[in-house]
From TrEMBL:
Organism: Candidatus Caldatribacterium saccharofermentans
Necessary cofactors: Mg(2+)
Key word Magnesium present: yes
Gene: glmM
Uppermost EC category: isomerase
Keywords for the protein's UniProt record, in alphabetical order: Isomerase, Magnesium, Metal-binding, Phosphoprotein
Name of the protein described by the UniProt record: Phosphoglucosamine mutase
Single biological process term from Gene Ontology: carbohydrate metabolic process
Length: 451
């Protein structure tokens, strides 16, 4: 049976692969799995999202579900609603993918994405077309329409020191990527007393301002604005608002590893039990933070779904990924860019220090990240070569690719992409030369294995 789901949800090129017909069948399959229970539905601001959203609503209604429509909203806002109302969820979004893509994320009643077992069942129903069809008198005549924006904003504000943030009167530059966060994050920051200057803060599915993925090359306008203005920091989000990237007051791009470490350090110092949960690709700064606060770091495969699942199972205090994704388990069982922005302002307000100084206080590590395109037919040979080269190492992790941790605290990770003919090589060390040497060593190994 073919696999439909990726690391979180289903993403395809819209109206070529992910058509309205496919979206309706997927919604019917999900509705069949949950026995026609109530579902809260939202969408991002992509050009094709309303079309697919309507198809999803139709499929859910056909199976007898009561549908609560949120319209355009951020993914974490919908996940918050699922948890508050104990309702299943469906979000039409392709997150940070290019404009021609779209997707559907299905949620548990907790707001977490579906476990793989439920994904497999949705796939079985989809391909077997064993749909639950409600009789005409079971179908709801109307959907319920709700605007949860201000409830969600109020819930975020209740978890941070708003009074301290207001006293600081932060000046913040915010890039919303012309996505769904445009309807939430500017208002959240303003409500907390920030003076906000926005870029790309109107929803537009053409993404005229920039590509929705918040990478350094896509955030040049935001960096330029901060460097030539008087700002305390900058924030950038992706198309559906689940990720956050931070820019310092000096206009320096902050790698996700550092921003998540800043938040982890604050939470780890609180008198609450539980481990930090992260992926094999994330910085070992977290290991030092955990050691200093008598905690454990739980390591998972890459993907926010597996991080969220481990958080639930282990009672974790914080979950994060190296791309800047942050999960606050007492709030939303998924990455939440708006909550992350509020919490970083909370840290700044209570420290009285600029962001660049707080980052300097983190343990010093240097990361080098590379990716190399490979011949798909030689993928197995490349991975076999990496496997053989790392077997001799005493501290090897094979959760997601091949990771080796050395006695000096440095590490290297070789991980194949699940969707593209790519191999990613990450390394981290206390000095840049060591990290660069590790990456170079394994890039050379990959090149040799392809010959």
């Amino acid at each position: 049976m073919p696999r439909l789901f990726g690391t979180f949800g289903i993403r395809r090129v819209a109206n070529e692969v992910l058509t309205p017909e496919m979206a309706t069948k997927l919604a019917l399959s999900f509705a069949t799995l949950i026995g026609g229970e109530s579902v809260v539905v939202g969408r991002d601001a992509r050009k094709t999202s309303e079309m697919l959203y309507n198809a999803v609503v139709a499929g859910l209604c056909s199976a007898g579900c009561q549908v609560v429509e949120l319209g355009v909203t951020a993914t974490p806002a919908l996940q918050w609603a699922c948890r508050q109302w104990q309702m299943w969820g469906a979000m039409v979004t392709a997150s940070h993918n290019p404009p021609e893509w779209n997707g559907i994320k299905f949620m548990e009643k907790s707001g977490k994405g579906l476990d793989r077992e439920k994904e497999v069942e949705v796939e079985r129903i989809f391909f077997g077309e064993t749909f639950r069809r409600a009789s005409w008198f079971e179908i709801r005549q109307e959907t319920v329409k709700r605007d949860i924006r201000w409830d969600y904003i109020a819930a975020i504000m209740s978890r941070v020191d708003v009074a301290a943030i207001r006293r600081r009167n932060f000046r913040v530059a915010l890039d919303c990527a012309n996505g769904a966060p445009s309807l939430i994050t500017p208002y959240l920051l303003s409500e907390m007393g920030c003076r906000v200057v926005t870029l790309n803060a109107h929803p537009d599915g053409n993404f005229p301002g920039r590509n929705p993925e918040p990478t350094p090359e896509n955030l040049r306008d935001l960096v330029t604005l901060i460097r030539h203005g008087d700002f305390d920091l900058g924030f950038a989000q992706d198309g559906d608002g689940d990720r956050l990237i931070v820019i310092t007051e000096k206009g320096e791009f902050v790698p996700g590893d550092l921003s998540v470490s800043l938040v982890a350090k604050e939470l780890a110092q609180r008198p609450i039990p539980g481990p930090i949960v992260t992926t094999v690709a994330t910085t070992h700064i977290l290991q030092e933070i955990a050691k200093a606060t008598n905690r454990e770091v739980i390591t998972t495969a890459v993907g926010d779904l597996v991080v969220a699942k481990a958080l639930q199972e282990k009672g974790g205090i914080f979950g994060c990924e190296e791309n800047g994704g942050m999960i606050f388990p007492d709030f939303v069982w998924g990455r939440d860019g708006a909550m992350a922005a509020a919490f970083i302002l909370h840290i700044l307000a209570n420290s009285g220090k600029p962001l660049s100084e707080l980052l300097q206080e983190l343990p010093p590590y240097y990361q080098v990240k590379k990716k190399v395109t490979i011949d798909p037919e030689k993928r197995d040979a490349v991975l076999a070569a990496v496997d053989e080269a790392t077997k001799k190492e005493k501290n090897r992790i094979t959760i997601d690719g091949f990771k080796v941790v050395f006695d000096d605290g440095s590490w290297v990770l070789v991980r194949p992409s699940g969707t593209e003919p790519l191999i990613r090589v990450f390394a981290e060390a206390k000095d840049r030369e060591r990290a660069e040497a590790l990456v170079a060593e394994y890039l050379a190994l990959i090149e040799k294995a392809q010959k």
